[in-house]
Amino acid sequence: VSRPRAAGDEYGSAALLAVLGTFILLSVSLAVLSAVTDLGIAAARARTAADAAALAGAGASPLVGGDGDTCDHARRGAEANDGRLLRCRPAATVAAGASVGSGIEVEVAVVPRNPLVRRLVGDVRARAAAGLRPGE
Amino acid sequence: VTPLVAFLLVLVLHAGLLATDLIAAQGLAREAARVATVADEATTRGALAEAAGRQPVGLTLTPAGERRPGELVTAEVRLRSRAFQAFGAEIWLPARATMRVEDR
């Protein structure tokens, strides 16, 4: 013999489901927000490391009294910002067919801190370039 | 249920604000380090305050004082987040950037 269900029981179940659904939605929202934030921070850190590497490399040019080991200085600049130098290409600045200065192009990678982002995206990369001309 | 949903929505909005400020703090640290490579501490503080707008911001430069060309200068920035201020919370977000000091 089944007992008829009271309307109050159904309201209680609906409220419980709504609360449960809200918490699940909230958890998913916060997880996604956390991942997106970490990706944004990693991109900003990569830009910082790339800028630092390019400027350190350009500053080591013999044109400004540096030792000329531009890529080594670029690597140190990247590592000082928790980045890893992937590519370093010293490049001459050419104008009217003649070399008038020197520059450097770098690519740097940083590791995101969020494990989910690390797994989904891997390293976050950024590029930067810096150059100078004699007399500047 | 409605008040709970509204509260959780506000919570998520503030978490979003916190995320935005975290990324902004990293950008400010880069700006501060960039200025510190070519200028003194007072100029760097001025540039940082201007970049941060109305948000309170703190700065520590290492090494302090006079810096020689070629050495590394680290700017550690602390930005006060707008998130959760309505709940009375005061959250300071750290960020750091290091760059090579240039000839002035």
3D structure, described in words:
The complex is a heterodimer of chains A (136) and B (104). Helices cover 51% and strands 25% of the residues of chain A. Chain A is of the alpha+beta class. In chain A, helix 1 runs antiparallel to helix 2 (70-79). Chain A is rod-shaped. Chain B has helices at 2-36, 41-52; strands at residues 57-62, 72-80, 92-100. The longest helix of chain B has 35 residues, at 2-36. The mean pLDDT of chain B is 92. Classes of the chains: A alpha+beta (136), B alpha+beta (104). Chain A binds chain B through residues 15, 18-19, 22, 26, 29-30, 33-34, 36-37, 40-41, 44-45, 47-48, 51-52, 55-56, 59, 64-66, 73, 76-77, 80-81, and chain B through 1, 4-5, 8, 11-12, 15-16, 19, 22-23, 26-27, 29-30, 33-34, 37, 69-70, 72, 74, 97-100, 102-103.
Question: End-to-end distance of chain A, in Å?
Answer: 95 Å
Structural class of chain B: alpha+beta
Based on DSSP secondary structure assignment, what is the total number of beta strands of chain A? 3
Helix content of chain A: 40-55%
Global outline of chain B: elongated
Which descriptors apply to this entry?
heterodimer, A: 136 residues, alpha+beta, 3-stranded antiparallel β-sheet, 3 helices, 51% helix, 25% strand, B: 104 residues, 2 helices, 45% helix
What does this entry show, briefly?
The complex is a heterodimer of chains A (136) and B (104). Chain A is of the alpha+beta class and 136 residues long.
Which helices and strands, and how do they pair?
The complex is a heterodimer of chains A (136) and B (104).
Chain A: H1 7-59, H2 70-79, E1 84-95, E2 98-110, H3 115-121, E3 124-132
Antiparallel strand pairs in A: 1-2, 2-3
Helix pairs in contact in A: 1-2
Chain B: H1 2-36, H2 41-52, E1 57-62, E2 72-80, E3 92-100
Antiparallel strand pairs in B: 1-2, 2-3
Helix pairs in contact in B: 1-2
